[in-house]
Amino acid sequence: MWSRELANVDFLVEDVPPVPPRAETIPFSRLETEPGGRARIVVYRRPVEIRTKDTDETALLVHETVVEEVANLLGLEPESVDPES
């Protein structure tokens, strides 16, 4: 499911997001799109690790984050991408 829609999407992990020094929030992820090009979904490792207590929570937060970004990319609600989210 979704293999065709996500064929031109790269999924990456980076340590920290580029944010201004006085940013009020730090994102868990970023979606980059280029007209006619590949899209990129980047998950930021350190903000996710700081927010979670153990590997189960980390896995759940990464899953929810990726589902949300895929939904944004496809113009859908997250529940349409993963009904169990």
The CATH topology comes to: Zincin-like
- Cα-atom radius of gyration: 14 Å
| Neighbour order of strands in the largest sheet | 1-3-2
Total helical segments:
3
The overall pLDDT average reads: 94
Q: Oligomeric state of the chains?
A: single chain
**Category by helix and strand content:** alpha+beta
Major sheet description: 3 strands, mixed
- CATH architect. name: 2-Layer Sandwich
Coarse shape: globular
N- to C-terminal distance: 16 Å
Structure summary, number of beta strands: 3
* Unreliable spans: none
Helix fraction bin: 25-40%
- Strand content is 15-25%
Pfam families: Zincin_1
Organism: Nocardiopsis kunsanensis
Protein name: Zinicin-like metallopeptidase
Describe the structure.
This protein is α+β, with helices and mostly antiparallel strands. It has a single domain, classed as Zincin-like (2-Layer Sandwich), CATH 3.30.2010.20. It is about 35% helix and about 20% strand. It has helices spanning about 45-50, 55-75, 80, and strands at about 10-15, 30, 40-45. The chain is globular and about 35 Å long.
Task: For the structure shown, list the relevant keywords.
alpha+beta; 3 strands; Zincin-like; 85 residues; Zinicin-like metallopeptidase; 3-stranded mixed beta sheet; single chain; 3 helices; Zincin_1
